[in-house]
Structures are given as C-alpha cells and as structure tokens.
Amino acid sequence: MVVCLILKLPLQTERFSIISELKPLTTENKQYNEVVSEKLKEMEPLQNRLGKFRDENNAMRAQGAGLCSSIEELDQTIKRLNDRISHESISLDEEKRLIRQIAQLEKSRPKVISTSVKRAQIQDTVVERDTIQDQVKTIGVGIDEVKKERQAVRSKIKALEDELKSVDAEIASLQEDLTAATTKKDKAYESLSQLRHERDVYNSSFIENRKLLFKAKDLASRSEVSELQELHKREVDKIMEEWCNSKTFREDYEKRILSSLNSRLMSRDGRMRNPDEKPIFIETHAPAAPAEQESLQLKMPAKQAKEAPAPQAEAAPKDEPRPKATVKSAKASAALDADDDSEAESPKEKPKPKEVNVAKLKEIKRQEEIEKNRLALERKKKLAEKQAAKAAVRAQKDAERKLKKEEKKAKKKAETADTEEPTESDKSDGATECQADDESALASAPVKKEQKKSVQYRNVVAKSKAPLPKVILKRKKAQSYWSWAGPAAAVAAVLVALLAVLGYYQYYRPASAGN
C-alpha cells in the first residue's frame, strides 16, 4: 500500500503539470474558434449576395435558351432567311419551313428585348460582384491562417491529452492496487485483532495466575502470614470448585500440561512411558494461507518435513555415543509442541489439507519418540555393561591387593616385634586408604555420569600377567615421650589460667559489686 502511494505521488504531480499546460492551450483554441466564427459570420452576407447574383444569371440563361442574344442578331437571322427564300432555288416545302421559322423569330422579338435588358442590368452589377468576391477571398485567407494556427494548437492539445490519458490510466491501475491493498490490510487487521482477542482469551488464566503470584510474593515479603494463608485457602477452594463444576476447565488444564508431559516422556496419567508406548498426540491446527503464493510457500516445509525423518533414522546409529544431541532434539520437539499449543486457530482453514497435515505430524512425532526411546534403551544397556566391567576390574584389583597383603604378612613374621606393630599399622592405614580411594572412585563415577550424560571413549591398555614388583614399606621413626609431653603441659597451664580469669569475672566480681 505504501508503495502504491509512493508511485502515485509523481504521477499526480505529472498530471497537474499536464493540466497546467493544457489550460492556456485550450483558452487559445477557444479564441481561435471565436475568430473563425466571427469571420464566417462576416462572410455569410457576402456569400448570400453572390448567391443571388448567381441565381439571377442562371435564371436569365434558362430564359434565353434558344433565343438570340440581341435584337441585331435577331434581325440578321431574319434577313438571312429572307435572302435565302428570294435568291435561292429551293423547294416549296423548304420555303414553307423557312417562312414558319421567320414567323417564330418575329414572335420571339419581345423576349429577346427583355433578356437584353436584363443582361444589361447584370452587366452593371459585375463590378459589385467582383468587389464582393475580393472581400470573400481576403476573409477566406484570414480564416485559413487562423485555422493553421488553431491546428498547431490542437496538435499540442492532442499530445497532452494522450499523455494525460496514459497518466490517468496508470493512476487508475495504482488506485485499483491501492484499493486491493487496503481491503487486504483491513482483512489482515481484522484477522490480527481476532487472533489477539483469542490470544488474550487463551492467556487470561496465565495473566490472572501471574497477578496472583505477584500478590503472594508481596504478602510474603511483608511477612503477612495470615493473609497469605487466607489467599492460599481461597484460591485452592476456587480452583477445586472450578475443577468439580467446569468440564471446560478440566479439559483446558489437561491440554495445557500435555506438552510438558510429552517433553518429560510421560503419559497422560503422569507415569513414565514404556519403550513400546506411543507418545501423547497433541492436536495442532496450521493457519490457512490467505493467497496462492503463501500456500505454495507453506507447501515447501511440509515436503521437507516428509523427507526429514528418514535421514534422522539413518544417522541415529552413528550418533549413539552422543546423547546430548538426543536431549537437545527432545527439548526442541517439546518447545515446538508448546508453540503449536500456544498458536491460535485460523478462522479460514481448509478441511482436506488439515487432515493430511495432522496425519503427517502424528506419524513424524511417533517415529521421533520411538527413535528417542530406542536410543535411551541403548544408552542404558551400554552404561550397565560399563558398570559391570568396572566392577569386575575392581574385584580383580581387590583380589590382587589381598594377595599382596598376605605375602607381606608372611614376610614380616620373621622380623622383630617393634617393627611388626608399625608395619601392621601402616598396612592397615594403606588398606583403609585403598578402600577410601575405591569408595571415592565409586561415588565420583555416577556423579560424573549424571553431570555429563555422555560416553567417553578411553584407550584401554592391555594388562600384562607378569608378577607385580614387591612393595618396600618405609619404617616410621619412633617418637620420644618428651617431644609431646612438654607442649601438652604448657597448653594445660594456659587453659587453667583462662578458666581462673573467667571464674573471677563471672562469679567473684559480680558478688563484690553487689555488696
């Protein structure tokens, strides 16, 4: 919509400039039209006068058809016919015919006289007719010049009008796009407002619980225990009443905790799922596409989702010693499930694609859960095998230690009694230290497993069956009695002095102050 407005602005400015250029040209064209009309009005009476002259001349010619043009011509023709009758030798019939012709000519004498008079009159008006024709010619020349100038102006006007039409067509197309964009924006805003309303309705319980939590924290920070207990009791009674009376509340609560149960590999009743048990299926509704382009864009991820589980299943055996990746994928799937639950359902949703998408998602999730369970079982088996191997190694080490101790005891029997006691004490100390080391190793092993949750490959060195070297224990030096008796006596004397001072300040001095 913004693009349409941006494109429309320069077109509107261009349209205004064209209109500003057209206005003076149209006024000029009107002026030329007025000049031409005035000249035509001026020419009209002259043309009427010339028409009258032309009509009179035509009428005179029509009347004088077959007659002599003048009296002299009539007399000459009559004389020629009489001479022919008198001087030539002709037949009787020819003579009669000539006589009749002479008689007709004599009869036409008055007509010839009238036509000659009219011709003389017309001849007198020739000068006037010529002047009128000259005036008409000059006016026609002026009209032609004005028409040429008007034609140039009209050509400019036509070019500008064509340009204006093209600009108007572009503006109309942009206006159509703008109206379509505005309608689309209005529809999108309506859907957005509807989705916001649905989101607010969906999150209303969360907002109420958040306010309640803030209120409880405030009461706890102010140490108002009684009010906090009353609030707790009131809210518990309210929730239990809703749970008992409202079926929608129970269904909504169960729906909200499904994603959490799924992420923790638990069933609907809160117990851990068995390896062969199917995961909880959460219904999700994909929003409908508003246009064909968006539907095409939404089809691509669906195809990728079809092809995604197969490579994961193939790559799972290779990634067995990496449980962190499976944990991350489980968390990601849980987050996706939560997001799918939180998404609002679209009002315009096609039924057929919805069924197909739900079936595909169900199959994909089922395969993912089966793969996760299989990997978990394999990890448990490997951990159990490693623990058994470590226990066997420890048992072997304990047996070797016992053998060493028996050998040492047999060797030390031949030695003196004063040396046997410290050696036995040393042996006992060594045994206790070994036991403590074993216990610390056993305690640290599960802690590391819990923290890392990953299998580390170690290079196991093959043990040789050669006899171990003999251990030569160092003999402890005998300490004298006075090395510790002197310091002990000094410490005892200091303690006695301190007790005396404390007794003085606690019993004797208060008594003397009281007296």
Automatic annotation (TrEMBL):
One of its GO terms (cellular component) is plasma membrane. Signal peptide: none annotated. Keywords: Cell membrane, Coiled coil, Membrane, Transmembrane, Transmembrane helix. The keyword Transmembrane applies. The chain crosses the membrane at residues 481-505. It is found in: Cell membrane. Residues 143-184 form a coiled coil. It is a single-pass membrane protein. Residues 299-456 are annotated as: Disordered. Residues 301-315 have a biased composition (Low complexity). Residues 345-388, 395-416 have a biased composition (Basic and acidic residues). The keyword Acyltransferase does not apply. Belongs to the plant Proton pump-interactor protein family. This is Proton pump-interactor 1. It comes from Zizania palustris.
